[in-house]
Design goal:
It is a single chain. This protein has 1 helix and 7 strands. By secondary structure, it is mostly beta strands. It is flat.
Amino acid sequence: MTLENPDASQAASVILRYLPEGGGSPVSRVVVVAPHSRATVLANQDMPGQSFSLVVVASLPIVAERPMYFAYNGTQTGGSDVIGYQP
């Protein structure tokens, strides 16, 4: 996932709250995104081998993006992208 901070002067504090599928305790992580920049979060490293939902809460308006890429049988590549904005 990428987190983009469009603000030119303030860092954004972003809380990522992972909600494990089928119950279990939520796992939270804070990421600070510098002004006018972006940060990459590897969610599969935060929640290895688990299915989960994710809640994103930020101190400033940000853009959260979930790019996904794949290679099928080594012959076809592709991907998808979902973008969300928190005002």
